[in-house]
Specification:
The complex is a heterodimer. By secondary structure, chain A is of the alpha+beta class. Helix content of chain A is 58%, strand content 15%. In chain B, the strands form 3 sheets. Chain B has a 6-stranded mixed beta barrel with strand order 2-3-8-5-7-6. In chain B, strands 13-14-19-16-18-17 form a 6-stranded mixed barrel. Classes of the chains: A alpha+beta, B alpha+beta.
Chain lengths: 108, 879
């Protein structure tokens, strides 16, 4: 049985963001998720940064320091090959989870 | 890779922390930029960014926790936390670490000794197949029996023979006395050693008497006496005035098959005549050599014993006179068979047990320290639990603390033991004999010590766990001291304290028994007076004297000694009573023709003395006459016997005078002309045994001691005596010491036992004092308020003290009684070593009780003082 946790959804959002946008820093990830979800999803920094560091430790993403457009130093993250595989897996799991919850709600 | 990163991160912590901060800072900065771009004022932009970000510190900590999820970092954190906690309470940390260090050091030292003397096989290749062969329970065999064993056994690959002797070695200049092994020609091959330089002698060199004129040097002797000269091989040196060639040098660690003896060199036993001035290898009655054999692969000890039994049966049939009672047995080698091995093993095992008890006491002490500390910190812990810390986390922190104490204590203990063991290895306990025990610690010692430290640390740290797990935070916070307050009948701490007090009492009892035994043996009647006497020991053979020349020289030495001012009397004896050498003989009734040992009336100590010895030694003549110079080879064989001999052989002292007896070969029919008092001859603990004294003129030997009774302080006379004998023959090696010094060999075992037990007893007492002190001061501080109230309500001193320390004293009394009972049982073991070690000695009992009471007083003095001084008004104000 795949891992169906809602908590894992933050990882999914981050991984998906990095897949769509390539290299991005933490602040950019927050903005992207907010925009792409039509302001429905607000990621909190207090959760985001520990998650980023955890995923870096597990080698799903890698990081490097670089300059922003405004010439400010920031830590940029990007997906690794393993992260890409993890993303695929997480997407499938999430689909299953959503389908399962829908079916559950529709059941009468 | 990741784990490497994590470990690396530990050492780059500050850098990693800085990086996290920088990342978070940049996040906020980016938001501020956007806010500014959206048209906010700088202040507003900054405020908004910070508000949106939330708690920066919390986030940073969470991030760094994510970075080090493996726990290594957290362990680091715990460690730092524990260190801080320990530094915050230096009294606790110091007591705990020192307690553990003392116990670990004691155990490491005793274990090393046990390891070297008992556990570890001899430091020789294939040592597990080497066994000493004992004859009728003693390690001594004759050379002819050895040849027969060698030829007829089927169980051993080979058997070697060796014994300890002295010889004078002359490498240019005057001969110096050396301690040697005389060894059979196959000795080195049986032990399986290879030469460091040159070669060893082998069976193939052996063609009987005097056929191998070679010696092999021991490595240390080669270094000290030949300056480590590599070209020494082939050089000729004088040994007892005979020319021998240095054949080889033994490897550095090799000292033969005895653990405690460091020889100077090895001489082939076939050269016996050159070393000792007499050749006895064809005498089957001359049982003085030790045997060590290497079992064939696959042969068990039982099979070998059976095999030797058949050899013994052959010997008994063929040589009934000497081998009538021969029974061979295999024993562990290294400590002169079971002669030293038995008592040494028992004693060291006993010491190990005591050291274990010390460790137990230390653990009990540590346990109660930790428990008291946990109770003291109950409020802090409760608060932390209430604030959301998990029990697991708190336990982990406590355990880290325990581990830290264990490591610190263990390290200190091991360091101390290494120091002590090096000192012990260098120690030469006997002035006149090269005995020492190289007990330098090996890996095994370190491992055992470290394990003991960690295990005891963890156990002690775990002691208060139950307390903590059961604690309900709200209770503790509410009442302040919920954990300690409950008056349980038996708290774990109390049990630990009782154990500790009992252990201390056991140690005190045994050390008191030992000390008492030692004093008794120092004051016991030896049958001679070692006080105010000098001994000048020499072997004239070393300077080339033999036969009549030796006799004349002995007379000259005696005359010279008597002429020295301050010498009141002087005499000669061949073996000093209670010294390192002795001989005994089977004695028979007159008219016997059956000289088998089984037909002997008694086994008697045999001594040769000159006229004047009795006076010089301070031995009382009970009846009859002393020997005279006229009792020489041309007059009838006469003898003095001691009282035990007279009683056993003739029934009474008066019946002995004028009676006759025979000794083993029946050559002489001895006429008893006098009876002297009984004495100690071999050990201090022996019962009175028969002894006889023959005139030296009728039993000549070159190896004697001049006993000089001094009227002045012996040290003052020593120089004059030394010079006058030196003037007779400058080339004669001799040793000169007071009889008291010589006695140290006889007293060594008892002294060593006393010192060891005394030290352990002291450690035990120290631990008990700290334990009781800790317990008492803890209970006083817990109940100080109550004391204050009692005093305010008019309680007298006794009542206050009773309330404050009653429990401590009850535990002390209980533990002491248990310990004394145990100690009395344990000291039975001591009676093998210590003279008249009687456990039911009222002095010992009183002494132990007194000591325990003093100990209790000392330990509770300060807490009692504190309880009595409790100031109600001040105490009530607090809190």
């Amino acid at each position: 049985m795949p891992k169906n946790d809602l908590q894992g959804s933050l990882d999914l959002l981050v991984l998906k963001t990095l897949a769509q946008r390539g290299r991005l820093h933490g602040y950019g990830i927050v903005l992207h998720i907010q925009r792409a979800s039509d302001d429905l999803l607000q990621v909190e920094e207090g959760s985001l940064y520990p998650a980023l560091h955890r995923m870096e430790q597990t080698r799903w993403i890698s990081s490097e320091w670089a300059l922003t457009d405004t010439n400010r130093k920031a830590k940029y993250y990007k997906l690794t090959a393993e992260g890409r595989r993890q993303l695929q897996q997480a997407e499938e799991n999430f689909d299953q989870l959503v389908r399962g919850i829908r079916a559950m709600l529709r059941y009468a | 890779m990741p784990i490497v990163n994590r470990i690396a991160n530990l050492f780059r912590r500050s850098r990693v922390d800085g990086e996290i901060s920088a990342e978070l800072e940049s996040h906020i900065a980016l938001r501020i930029e956007d806010n500014l771009a959206a048209g906010m004022s700088p202040d507003e932009a900054r405020r908004d960014a910070l508000v949106r970000f939330g708690n920066r510190t919390a986030t940073r900590e969470n991030v760094s926790a994510a970075d080090s999820a493996l726990g290594l970092d957290r362990f680091w954190f715990d460690l730092r936390h524990a260190t801080r906690q320990l530094i915050k309470s230096p009294g606790f940390a110091f007591t705990a670490i020192v307690t553990l260090a003392v116990a670990i050091a004691a155990n490491a030292v005793v274990f090393s000794v046990l390891n070297v003397l008992v556990l570890r096989p001899l430091n020789l290749p294939g040592a597990d197949r080497l066994f000493s062969i004992e004859n009728s329970g003693e390690p001594f065999n004759s050379y002819p029996d050895f040849r027969d064993l060698l030829a007829r056994n089927k169980a051993f690959d080979s058997i070697a023979l060796y014994y300890i002797e002295t010889a004078g070695l002359d490498s240019g200049g005057n001969p110096q006395q050396a301690y040697i092994y005389e060894a059979s020609s196959n000795y080195f091959d049986v032990l399986g050693v290879r030469p460091y330089l040159g070669r060893f002698f082998h069976s193939s060199d052996d063609h009987g008497k005097d056929s191998i004129p070679y010696i092999v040097l021991a490595y240390p002797y080669w270094r000290t006496h030949f300056h480590g000269d590599e070209n020494i091989i082939g050089r000729t040196v004088g040994m007892n005035r005979h020319q021998v060639t240095i054949l080889g040098v033994a490897p550095p660690q090799f000292r033969g098959a005895e653990l405690m003896y460091q020889p100077d060199f090895w001489v082939p036993v076939v050269d016996e005549a050159q070393v000792e001035g007499q050749y006895t290898l064809d005498d089957r009655g001359q049982q003085n050599a030790m045997l060590i054999g290497r079992l064939k692969p696959g042969v068990t000890v039982a099979q070998a014993t059976g095999d030797l039994k058949s050899v013994a049966a052959y010997l008994k049939k063929t040589y009934p006179t000497n081998d009538d009672a021969t029974v061979f047995s295999l024993v562990h080698p290294g400590l002169m068979g079971n002669m030293l091995g038995g008592p040494v093993r028992a004693f060291v095992a006993g010491l190990m047990l005591l050291a274990g008890l010390i460790l137990l006491a230390a653990c009990a002490n540590l346990g109660s320290l930790f428990a008291a500390r946990a109770a003291d910190r109950s409020r802090e812990i409760a608060l932390r639990m209430a604030l959301g810390s998990t029990r697991r986390r708190i336990l982990r922190q406590l355990l880290t603390e325990a581990l830290l104490v264990a490591s610190a204590g263990g390290a200190a203990g091991i360091a101390a033991s290494v120091f002590l063991l090096h000192a012990l290895s260098a120690w030469q306990p006997l002035p006149q004999f090269p005995v020492n025990v190289p007990v330098n610690p090996d890996t095994r010692t370190y491992v055992v010590a470290a394990l003991l430290a960690i295990v005891s640390g963890l156990l002690c740290g775990l002691a208060p766990v139950r307390q903590i797990l059961r604690a309900a935070p709200w209770e503790v916070v509410k009442t302040g001291t919920a954990i300690a307050g409950r008056a349980k009948r038996f708290a774990l701490r109390d049990v630990l304290l009782v154990i500790q007090v009992a252990v201390c009492a056991v140690l005190l009892t045994s050390s008191l028994v030992a000390v008492r035994g030692l004093t008794r043996s120092l004051n016991a009647s030896f049958g001679f007076r070692p006080q105010d006497a000098l001994l000048l020991t020499q072997d004239l053979n070393m300077a080339g004297y033999s036969g009549d020349r030796a006799v004349a020289m002995q007379r000259r030495m005696l005359d010279a000694a008597q002429a020295v001012p301050g010498v009141a009397a002087a005499g000669l004896i061949d073996d000093i009573p209670l010294g390192l050498g002795w001989s005994q003989t089977a004695v028979f009734k007159s008219g016997t023709s059956d000289f088998r040992d089984s037909n002997a009336t008694a086994i008697s100590m045999a001594y040769g003395i000159s006229p004047g010895y009795l006076k010089a030694a301070g031995t009382t003549l009970l009846a009859g006459r002393d020997i005279a110079w006229s009792d020489d080879r041309n007059s009838p064989a006469i003898v003095l016997v001691n009282r035990a001999f007279a009683r056993k052989f003739f029934g009474s002292v008066s019946q002995a005078i004028g009676a006759h007896f025979l000794h083993d070969k029946g050559h002489d029919n001895f006429l008893v002309v006098g009876v002297v008092e009984d004495g100690k001859y071999v050990t201090l603990t022996e019962d009175p045994r028969p002894a006889y004294f023959r005139p030296l003129l009728q039993s000549p030997t070159t190896s004697t001691a001049v006993v000089a009774r001094t009227s002045a302080e012996p040290q003052a006379v020593a120089t004059a005596l030394h010079d006058s004998v030196r003037a007779l023959d400058a080339s004669l090696p001799f040793t000169l010491m007071t009889w008291d010094q010589e006695q140290s060999s006889a007293l060594f075992a008892a002294r060593a036992a006393t010192v060891a037990l005394g030290v352990l007893g002291l450690l035990g007492a120290m631990l008990a004092i700290t334990g009781i002190f800790g317990m008492a001061s803890y209970s006083v501080s817990k109940r100080l308020k109550e004391m204050g109230i009692r005093i305010a309500l008019g309680a007298g001193k006794t009542q206050v003290l009773g309330a404050a320390l009653g429990r401590a004293f009850r535990l002390l009394a209980f533990g002491s009684v248990a310990g004394i009972l145990l100690g009395l049982a344990a000291t039975r073991v001591l009676s093998f070593i210590v003279y008249q070690a009687s456990p039911s000695d009222p002095v010992v009992l009183a002494g132990t009780i007194l000591a325990m009471m003093t100990l209790g007083l000392v330990a509770t003095w300060a807490p009692a003082h504190r309880a009595l001084l409790a100031d109600p008004s001040r105490l009530m104000r607090e809190e």
